[in-house]
Amino acid sequence: MLNLFIFNHITDDEVISALLRFRDECREEDYCTAIRGLIAFSEHRLTNKNIIGEYVLRQMLETEQIADISNLRDFLRHDVKIIYNELLAYDWNSLFSECGCILPDSITLPPVDTGLGGYVQSIEAMLSCESNEALGGAILAHTDSFGTGSSSAFSALKWQDGRLVGILRPDEILFDALTGLEHQKKVLIENTESFVLGKPANDVLLTGSSGTGKSSCVKACLNMFKNSGLRLIELNKSDLGDLSSVFGCIKNNVLKYIIFIDDLSFEPGDMSYKILKSALDGQAEARGSNILIYATSNRRGLIKETWTEREGYMGDEVHRNEGIQERKSLSARFGINLSFLTPTQNEYLRIVGDMLSARNIEMTDEIRAEALKWQINYNGFSGRTAKQFVLSLLGR
Fold it and tell me: What is the pLDDT of residues 136-181, one digit of tens each?
């Protein structure tokens, strides 16, 4: 097996271990183990190049186990030389052909889209290196830009079953597609840019009616800054209890992370708001300086207030007013509060017109009348209604 310092974790990988055993013993069992693993990996490959090479590189770099390699250059050179000679530069196709085996190149599933073209280019550059010295330099350049860990390969991730999972084909919406939100876009862009540049920045609460562009603005922020090291982590409100675990999984100090909680609100008696309040209060042990929280809500107060509560019938709470104020103050914990108003009829029609113009379709009186009729039947004036109308129009 391989004697490594920094990347020793790859020797525990089933596919890599099977490849090395097959090289030494040519046993069919090891070949089958390796190929089954590569077939499973092919559903997540980023390039259409050497699949074994990409597998090895991503096992090296997309782990939470390795330290900052920029301070371990002698050990890096040692490891890269071994990995390059034993795995990356080895002629696997000749070995498979000699043993009468099907070549891994016959695995032809197309690459997936993680929203990070620069990351893919970096992997391709490493696969093209013709010496271990060149590979070592390419790895250093890669980790300077992307760091390491599972979150480095995806622009957007979600918290699922107690771990971070990369999102394939994330929403590519841009700010140019969002009409009538100039103030909100300006504030959000300035805050996010400060964050990405390592300057002070605020958590953000975006409130307003459904379909007014709150979530789209957050996703547009990601697309504007993802190539500058920004990542988005989607967290369901029901998973707020895992917030500290999410913080613990973010070990990549090269990147900046926005934890995005969509459609946030709390029912009376739901104490999970205290977890969020604690995180927003900025406890040093709760989250790092490379993490912000952006949340959207249809309700400015976030926590539903009942008439019974307002009129003083909360028999189980002695200091009723203090309790109410604590719950109502949650929104104030966000440094920035942005309101998204329901568009007027003229603003709605302007959104429709801009969407059509982007597709080289002229707004006519007939289309205008159809758009107004559409909003009566489908959720009223909003950016979402405008988009749905345009999609319906294009589908005819």
Answer: 999 999 999 999 998 899 999 999 999 999 998 899 999 988 887 9
Say how far apart CA 170 and CA 8 lie, in whole Å: 33
β-bridge partners, 28: none
* CA 56 to chain CA mean position, Å: 23
Same domain, 194 and 66: no
The verdict on 280 and 360 lying in the same domain is: no
Distances, alpha carbon 383 to alpha carbons 35, 264, 342, 389, in Å: 48, 20, 9, 10
Please name the residues in contact with 161: beta carbons below 8 A apart, sequence gap of 6 or more. Answer: none
Question: CA 124 to CA 253: how far, in whole Å?
Answer: 24
Surface-to-core class of residue 256, CB atoms within 10 Å of its CB (0-12 exposed, 13-18 middle, 19+ buried): buried
Residue span of the structural domain in which 237 resides: 165-340
- What DSSP state is assigned to residue 340? E
For residue 31, give every residue at least 6 positions away whose Cβ sits within 8 Å of its Cβ, in sequence order, or none: 18, 22, 96, 99, 101
53 and 13 both lie in a single domain: yes
Averaged in consecutive runs of 10 residues, what is the pLDDT profile of the chain (396 residues)? 93 97 96 98 94 98 83 94 98 96 93 93 97 97 92 94 92 88 96 96 92 93 96 95 90 92 82 83 70 88 51 50 57 91 85 86 90 86 86 85
Q: Which amino acid is at 210?
A: S
Q: Do 222 and 176 fall into the same domain?
A: yes
Cα–Cα dist 293/273, whole Å: 14
Judge if 279 and 253 occupy the same domain: yes
Same domain, 144 and 193: no
d(CA 215, CA 210): 10
Within 10 angstroms of residue 8's Cβ, the number of other Cβ atoms is 14
Contact 38, 15 (CB under 8 A): yes
